[in-house]
Write a structure and sequence with these properties.
By secondary structure, the protein is of the alpha/beta class. It contains eleven helices and seven strands. 49% of the residues lie in helices and 13% in strands. A hairpin with a 4-residue loop joins β4 and β5.
Length: 280
């Protein structure tokens, strides 16, 4: 019979910020304090200090705690249900999840399968049979979920306020860059955007346009997409459908005129596949 596993679960919502970003926004320093390397160091030291023997398996996620599709977290749940885990070590409840119902589900599964959870914030094990421990975990989970919702609401309110004042907010769309409180055109990327619209109106489809752009990218004539290594059809369609490029938002200078954009939408609408109907 294989020995049961001791697992440390580590999570951050965003990738590690670099020093340049921290200089621009010192508030990002807190992200370093709870970074993956810091969590690894603290949980590994704590494991040794508790006197627990064996190999500590580190399972990590780089995703929001509000998401249910975290690979590392779901792997732990699977291992618990397969009776392969002895103990789990976590920095705090908000590192496990930002939803109280998810935290309670984890605790319930662990209790059902005889797995002990250790929280660094509590400096010890969580006894699910202890009403005080149960209440503490539930209160922490609800509090974490509340503050996540409040923070999201503040971000949305901030975006709305900045937009109402004509100020720049969010990441710029492809073809633009942010300079002070304005979005300005990036010439080579705007050339790629104009090529998209021209090619569509000339009769090319999404796949043909994607191949054209990708060929020009490989030849070094035009840049690639904003958040990927190569052009894909969906990225092309997203640009063609975005009214930002005809100047619908005062924060973004127009790249194509309204007539060209309208014509592109008519072509795209005609190319939509018909809806499937099931026979009854």
């Amino acid at each position: 019979m294989e020995a049961l596993m001791d697992i440390a679960y580590l999570r951050v919502s965003t990738p590690q910020p670099d020093e340049e970003k921290i200089k621009r926004n010192p508030k990002r320093r807190w992200q370093q304090e709870e970074s993956l390397p810091k969590q690894r160091e603290m949980l590994t030291e704590w494991y040794a200090r508790l006197g627990h023997e064996g190999e500590l398996v580190l399972i990590e996620d780089d995703a929001s705690g509000s998401r249910d599709d975290r690979a590392g977290f779901n792997r732990i749940l699977h291992l618990v249900q397969q009776n392969q885990v002895r103990r789990i070590y976590i920095w705090d409840t908000h590192r496990a999840a930002r939803k109280s119902v998810v935290i309670q589900r984890l605790m319930w599964h662990c209790w059902q399968h005889g797995v002990t959870i250790y929280l660094k914030s509590m400096e010890g094990a969580v006894d699910w049979n202890n009403p005080q421990h149960r209440m503490m975990v539930q209160v922490k989970g609800i509090t974490d979920e509340y503050f996540l919702g409040m923070r999201s609401q503040m971000v949305r309110d901030g975006y709305r306020y900045r937009k109402s004042k004509g100020l720049v907010c969010g990441h710029p769309y492809y073809g633009y860059k942010r300079v002070d409180e304005k979005h300005v055109i990036v010439p080579d990327r705007v050339e790629a955007v104009r090529l998209l619209f021209s090619a569509l109106i000339a009769g090319k489809g999404g796949a043909s346009i994607t191949r054209l752009l990708e060929a020009k990218r490989q030849e070094g004539i035009l840049p690639g997409p904003q958040h990927a290594s190569r052009w894909k059809v969906q990225a092309v369609l997203d640009i063609l459908r975005n009214p930002i490029y005809m100047g619908s938002n005062l924060n973004y200078p127009a790249v194509v005129d309204a007539e060209m954009f309208k014509k592109a939408q008519e072509i795209l609408d005609r190319k939509k596949p018909p809806c499937r109907r099931t026979k009854t």
